[in-house]
Amino acid sequence: MIVIRIAAPRERTAWIYAPILVLTAFFGLFSSQVHAQVMTMTIYACVGQSSLQVRIVPESEECKSTETRVSWNTTGIAGPAGPTGPVGPQGPQGTNGASVTFVESFTGNLHDCPNGGATFATGTGETLIYTYVCNGTNGTSVTSRPMLTTDTRCSSNGGTIFTTESGETYVCNGATGPQGPDGQMSVAAEVALPNIGFQFFSNICANVGLVPVAPPAGATAAVVTAKVTVRIQHPSGSLTFDKGFLVFRKENETSCLTGTEVVNREAYKSYFSVSPGDPGGSSNNPHEITVFVQRLIDLPLPPGPSQIYLQGMMTSGATTTSQDSMQDANIIIQYHVK
């Protein structure tokens, strides 16, 4: 036991600090002779309250009633964390990873794969590691059947029941939609004219045929269509076009629609021509051109005779030979509801 006697200080309030300071200095003088492990251990002492005598005691020894227990060299609480150190140098390059390669597919119950699968390998040589990817289980086909009329899940509109692996589902038919508008009326009448051979004259409108208009009740429009064979004897070495057109017109319209009462009247005309330089047709072998004509006509027609005319006109190069003519006109009229 180490005992140190210290004279009492003048002021009693400082009696406890003086021995501690002295002991600290004492142990500091001999710190080079004391083992580091000892210096990190807490030192316990008993200080006489009147004599100020200090006794170094073990931790387990109790002080006397006339003494005060003191200790020092105790590890204090941790201080604040220091600043972050600088970033260290970059580490060495890592080794390349092993590639994954496909080995084979397999069927049957192999490698814990009841439905087969595929084998993959990583590494090389003796370090090969095999892994397996299993096929999924076979799914169940979806079947369907009409819903019975007694099935109340879809009210009175019925539906379809679908059966899957997880059970039944159903799809109901939609509700009946509103009544749609009346459909289009289509009534056709065909008029075939004989081989009349209407002769062309330059800039003179000629009637090729006509069709009576007798629409059924409720019809609001008529579509007239015609197929006509045009025959032209083109003079040999001619330097002009043999040109003309066919058109439908109503009773109250100008012949061949040459007036201005019909808007976009040119759109109703079907033109035909024989170009200059084409071989000339002989009297027994004229040029033949098939021409189609069509027009939409609103109903009802104005009061008076109810018929529609098919007319034609040569606008250039016409001759007065019987070979320049319109033949075999076939006219069809169809009635519709817009």
Which regions are unreliable across 5 or more consecutive residues at pLDDT < 50? 1-17, 24-38
| Main sheet characteristics | 5 strands, antiparallel
* Portion in strands: 35-45%
Percent helix among the residues? under 10%
Number of domains: 4
Give me the Rg, rounded. Answer: 60 Å
Structural class: mainly beta
Total strand segments:
19
Assign an overall shape: elongated
CATH class categorisation of the largest domain:
Mainly Beta
Q: Architecture of the largest domain, according to CATH?
A: Sandwich
- Gap between N and C termini, in Å? 128 Å
Order of helices and strands: EHHEEEEEEEEEEEEEEEEEE
Q: Any idea of the CATH topology of the largest domain? A: Jelly Rolls
Q: Count up the helices.
A: 2
Q: Mean pLDDT score, rounded?
A: 78
